[in-house]
Each structure stands twice: as structure tokens, then as C-alpha cells.
Amino acid sequence: QVQLVESGGGLVQAGGSPRLSCAASRRTVTTYTMGWFRQAPGKEREFVAAINWSGGSAYYADSVKGRFTLSRDYAKNTVWLQMDSLKPEDTAVYYCAASAAVAVTSVPQYNYWGQGTQVTVSS
Hints:
globular, mainly beta, 4-stranded antiparallel β-sheet, 7-stranded mixed β-sheet, single chain, 11 strands
């Protein structure tokens, strides 16, 4: 059973740089593609960033490219989402997710989800 637990959200001022964490159950980070999604009120859940279990660089949604950075630590079985230059439109619940596939950016392609962490950006 894969378990994902996000943390690090909260109220942030525009331009701030919080870091979200996703603690995964044993070996998840090494055997699953790890992704971050977000869902704003009244909107569908959307892809933010991911990194394949097979290696390679992280890939990002255009809306966050250059501002967000995904990283992972195999030993700690944790992935992080460093968010820089936050904007009010980044306000959403952020979810960590795991997929058995690679190069995946859509919600149905992910098998496991965390409970989400709220990020609210004030202007």
C-alpha cells in the first residue's frame, strides 16, 4: 500500500518561496513516478510537476516553469516542491501523487494520492 503525506502549505505573501514536502511509504520514490498537482476552488485538478521513477529531469506545467522546482531524496523517500515567486493565482490545494507509468501529466494516470495541503497566496 502506497501512502503519501504532504506538508508545508499555509498562508504566504506574493513573491514568497515555500517548500512542500511529500513523505512516501517505503520504496515509493524509487519505483513510482512522483508528481504534484493542484486544485483551485471551482477548478479541475491540474498537473504541476513530476519526475519519472526511471530517472531523468523533472518536467513542469508551463504556468510554473522557471518558478517551481521538484526534487527527491531516495534515502528519505521524500519529494519536495520548491515554489518561488508565488502569485495569487498559485493559490490551491496541492497534492502529491504516484504513478506506475512514466511521462504522465494527467490525473487518471496516477494511482495514489495524498490528502493535499493548502497553499494560499496573499497579494
